[in-house]
Amino acid sequence: MKYFLFFIILLFSACSIFFSSRKKNSKQVFLANCGMCHGIDHNVVGPKLRGVYENRDKKWLQAYILNADSMYQAKDSLTVALYNKWRFEPHNKKNISINQKELKQILRYLKDNKQ
After folding, report:
1. Global pTM?
2. Domain that holds residue 53
């Protein structure tokens, strides 16, 4: 019984460290790539992003994060409205280059901060 209890405590600690580290990494990726223009709870150059994960389709979010400028050029109505409201500069002028792993981390961060 002693060993079982020790194992449970050890397992719980390891899981806690893993998920804490994962959350920290997703925040760092968000801040490095998005944080200069977006806050979670406050507007910066662009709009605050709390709630965006549940208010937008995941595929739209992925496309927007990876290449909002091509969505603007394709006349996506929501993208055009956002660009007009916030007077965006094209994202590619900011030298933002996000790979698939970073995209997943950014989406995880937005999902974790949805409420």
Report:
1. 0.72
2. 2-112
